[in-house]
Structure formats: C-alpha cells, structure tokens
Amino acid sequence: MALPHAWYNEAVFYHIYPLGLAGAPKQNDYGEPTHRLRELFAWIPHIKDLGCTAIYIGPLFESVGHGYETTDYRTVDRRLGDNDDLKEFVRLCHENGLRVILDAVFNHTGRDFFAFKDIQQNRENSAYKDWYCNVNFWGNTEYNDGFSYANWCGYNLLAKLNQKNPAVISYHCDTVRFWVSEFDIDGLRLDAADVLDFDFMKALRRTANEVKPDFWLMGEVIHGDYNRWANADTLHSVTNYHLHKALYSGHNDHNYFEIAHTVKRLYEMTANGQPMQLYNFTDNHDVERIYTALNNKAHFLPAHILMYTLPGVPSLYYGSEFGIEGKKERHSDDSLRPCLSLDVLRNDTQKKTFVQIISRLGEVRKSLPALSYGDYKEVLLTNRQYAFTRNLDGQSVLVCVNNDDAPATLCIRNMNGMFKGLLSGSSLNTQNGCLTVTLPADSGDIFVCAQTEIKTSPLPQIQPTEPKKEPVAPQTVQLPKTQAPKAVQTPQKEAPKPVQAPQTAPAKPKSDTDDSTPDFCDHVPDGLAYEDMTVEQLQQVIFEKMKKNGHVTERMYKDIADNVWHNSLVNWAKSFG
Q1: Are strands 187-190 and 216-219 parallel, antiparallel or unpaired?
Q2: 361 Cβ contact list (under 8 Å, min separation 6)
Q3: CA-CA-CA-CA torsion sign (107, 111, 116, 120)
Q4: 378 in helix, strand or coil?
Q5: Which of 2, 143, 187, 282 has its CA 20 to 30 A from that of 323?
C-alpha cells in the first residue's frame, strides 16, 4: 500500500529549541514578557532558503526552566514573549510556505501547574488529586510536600500525569484545539511518547483528525518496534533514533553494513501495510551535534546525503547547517542548545560550504518525489561504499556514498541509459547494463536519468580531518552476480575488522510474552566503562536498558545479537543516556 500524499510525507524539517536560540534566561522569574521570539523571525527566510518546508519549534509554553516542566499550556513562556508573538511567528512561516509543529509535553507537568498547586494546598480534598499518578499522602519528596507522586525518569520536578483519567485526556485534547484555533499550527511533536498511554494517544489522534486536515502527530520514541506507536490509530511518525545512531557510528567505524541493516529492518517494519515515514535526524537538542560526533569531519557530506535520501522525513537541527560543534555533557545540555547570531554565522566564510551542501540537498529532495514516496532497494554494499535506489512511477533515483579516505569506483548493475549527478554535475552512460560511478574520498552523489530537469553544479568538498599523506589510486567496487559483496581492501591500510561474534549464539526469548532475560554474558562488573566491556557484556547492558523501556520482542533481541561491532555497541549503550 502506497503512502498517502500529505505535506508531512514530503517535508524537510528545521528544528528550533527557542529558549536556547533566543538566549533566554535559564530560570523563569515570572516577570514581564520579553519578546525574544520576535528575534527569531529573521531566521524564517534563511530556513526557507535551505529548502526546508516545515519547522518544529518548542517547547514554547510557560515553564520553570528548560521548558519541559510546564506551568501553563495555553500561555507562551514570558521569557520568549506572549501569545501574539507566536501567532505572528506562525503567520510568517505560513506566508513563506513553512508548516509549523509545536512541542506537546503531555506526559508530565511542572510543580507550578495549577492542578499540582491545588493538591499542595488542598491535599486529600483536592479535585485534582487523581490527575497525577501514584499520589501518596503518606509519602514525601525532597521538596517536603508532605506527599509523593510518580515522576518522569526520577525527576520530581516533572510530575507524571494520569493519562487514563478522562479529565486529563479532555484537558489535553482541549489544549490541542486551543493551539490550532489560537495559533493555526499544523501538528505536534509529542515529548516522551514512548511512555505515553496508548489509549491517550488514540484520543489525541481522533482530535488531530478533527481539528485540521493533515494535522501531524510525531512522537519522541528512543528504542523499540516503532510501529507500536506509528500506525493508523495513534501517531503518524516517531523519531528515528535507530538511524540517528547508525549514521554517525556507521561513518566513524567505516561500517556501512550497520546503516544498511538498520534501514532494511525499519523499512520492513510496516504499519497497517504501509511503510513508516520516520522522522530522520543527525542531531537534536538532546544529542551531540553531528559535526562533533563525526571523527572525520568530511563525513558531514555522506551522512547528510543519506539523511536526505533514505526513507523517512529529514530534519535539520538549528545551526548544524553551519557545521557548528556541540558536545553532550553529563550534567548540562547547554552546549547543545546555544544562542546563535544568524548574521555572525552567515559572515563566517569557513561555514558557507556546509550551508551550500544542505541547500542543495534541500533542492534535490523537493525536486524528486521518489525520495518522499518511492520504494527502497539496496544495490551495492561494502564496509565503505553503499548504493541504493528509490523508485516511483518511472522516476528512478540512485544514491551512492563513500566513507573511505580514498576515491572509489562503483559498478552498479542492471542500469540503463544516461545519468547525471545532481551534486557533482557529472554525466555518466551505462555500458552492458552497468553504470560505473567514481566517487571522491568521503563523498557521495545522487543520480537521475539525464532527461530529468534539475539544476546541477559541483559542490565544494569538506576537507578530511587528517589529510592523506600520499595520493591513493581509486578502488573498483563491483557487486558480483552470484555472491554477496565483500569489504573493499585498501592497499595502503587495512580495513577495520569487526569484533568476532560469540561462537554460540545466546538463547532467544521463548515467546513474545516471555520476559525472561536471555544471557549474553554471565556478569557485567559494576563500574566497568563501556569501552572496556566485551561484545557480550555490551549486548547484555543494551538488553537490560531496553527492558527498562518495556517488553523486549524477538526482533529487538535479534538486533542486539546481530550487532557484533564493539564501537557500534559502545555508541548504542551510550545513546540511552
């Protein structure tokens, strides 16, 4: 079954964390509104010029600190301005052809939310005591409330709402209706969707269908079978953390098998017979900037080519189109959420290459419906080269990437006719059903039939982190007719070898309902750094972390067992936080 044509299936998103970008104070003093949101109006033409067609912005509503401890769902955070500022922001976005979705923090509230304040004041007599989970008037917290309650992720600052309470469901659905009528928004990103109640999400979906045609619901989900959340009854899409991890670690480890395996598994994970359009990203407000995460900065290009051309909806995080750095810190996300000056970034000549790359990819994405709706077929795969096609109604797109520090020549079989490279400007002709593609080091290209009318011109290259000492002759990579592709051998250096898998595969879960823990290893010592663990120990750690998020299915278990690359497992374990 084909995907329905909708704005969100064709979108390229630009993600803004407004409190950071606008330089708002870390704490809300509940004083007079400061109209910082209006300072972001200047970013709208820039976002449009990048080829983006939608903006995800949030959190925006009154809160205590970072925005996810909501005080008032229907009033813009006074550190950003007021409701009129948000109305004008959305109006300007729509005027420039940009849809707008907001952060919806519906799993928990802050302690200043009216319902929580009422419980503090009236205790057992509060009409809102059932709005929260596990309220216990015999307990206490570090705030000395004289009662305890369930929270999100161990933080009592974030009091967990009881989403099975009809009053809570009604309140949040009314909030969605208010946001649409007041601000004319086009969708929501649901914070912490992986812990939201499924019946609650179904109620939100019914509300979405009611308030606006093509109103989009996208949920934050870290791990698991994504079609549990993204389907016809609950959400349209979820965050693709599986691909996010694979995009940087697959390049850092020179391991395109990890990326291709991830894509294949997700592509087969259909919902109601339809392929899922997952929300793809290289970075966001919770993870390290892609330019920091990549060991070789030149991999910025192939990583983003993949993000824009693989199945799903691509998203840029503000500032990453300039190749800015941002390291994930243990106790603060401030480095991931900086205040930026658009004028300063634009005047930095060293950053123009990155903007040119992103703008071109935006043009290509918009010009080729096959990248939004086409099927996916892997046509060549080695550790360091990867090629696939996206096909739709006679339009065929070939994507080729190379993560090696040497050039590579790929022979793609079963191709016919003339092709042109939309990033290189090159023209190629097939011979005997084979298209020969030569890629520079750390690069990639997108090929279409030569008759396709799309502007082409060579893109500038990003210099590798460590320049090569001597030139290396191009390699030839060919997909054999009868056997699986082998890893490319570079004469000057050895390709990294994967860590060997255990001789005996660990036992699988007995059934989908069996929660017994299979043993990847006998014991994981306390305090042992991920880098010092064995493959089996890392697999066990990842299994335990997944189990904390819910039932681990056989598919999820197999994903862990099939991954035997040490660096990849280390990055995977770290991605849980």
Answers
A1: parallel
A2: 51, 304, 305, 308
A3: positive
A4: strand
A5: 187
Q: pLDDT digits over 393-447, tens only?
A: 989 999 999 999 999 999 999 888 899 999 999 999 999 889 999 999 999 999 9
Q: How far apart are CA 499 and CA 496, in angstroms?
A: 9
Average pLDDT of the segment spanning 110-132: 98
Out of 138-142, 377-381, 570-574, least confident range: 570-574
Q: Rounding to the nearest 10 degrees, give the CA dihedral for residues 444, 449, 450, 454.
A: -70
Residues 557-566 pLDDT 10s: 766 876 766 7
Amino acid, single-letter form, for residue 110? G
Of 236, 340, 324, the closest CA to residue 7 belongs to 236
Dist. CA 123–CA 458, nearest whole Å:
67
302-324 residues labelled b (16+ CB within 10 A) or e (exposed): bbbbbbbbbbbbbbbbbbbbbbb
Backbone CA torsion sign across 252, 256, 257, 260? positive
Answer whether 540's CB lies under 8 Å from 521's CB.
yes
Is-contact 141 132, C-beta < 8 A? no
CA dihedral 261, 267, 272, 273 (to 10 degrees): -120
Burial of 380: CB neighbours in 10 Å, binned 0-12, 13-18, 19+: buried
As a dihedral over the C-alpha atoms of residue 534, residue 221, residue 47, residue 79, rounded to 10 degrees, the angle is: -110
Residue 459 phi, psi (nearest 5): -90, 150
Type of residue numbered 490: T
Task: Give the C-alpha separation, 359 to 341, whole Å.
Answer: 19
Residue in the structure block whose two tokens are 């006074």: 78
Q: Do residues 230 and 196 touch, judged by C-beta distance below 8 A? A: no
Q: For residue 213, with 0-12 CB atoms within 10 Å meaning exposed, 13-18 middle and 19 or more buried, which class applies?
A: exposed
Pair 388, 375: CB distance under 8 Å: no
29 burial (CB, 10 Å; 0-12 / 13-18 / 19+) is exposed
Q: Which residues of 528-554 are buried (b: 16+ CB within 10 A; e: fewer)?
A: eebeebbbbbbbbbbbebbeeeeebee
Catalogue all structural domains in the chain, each as residue range(s) with its CATH number. 374-478 (2.60.40.1180), 499-577 (no CATH)
CA distance 210 to 226: 24
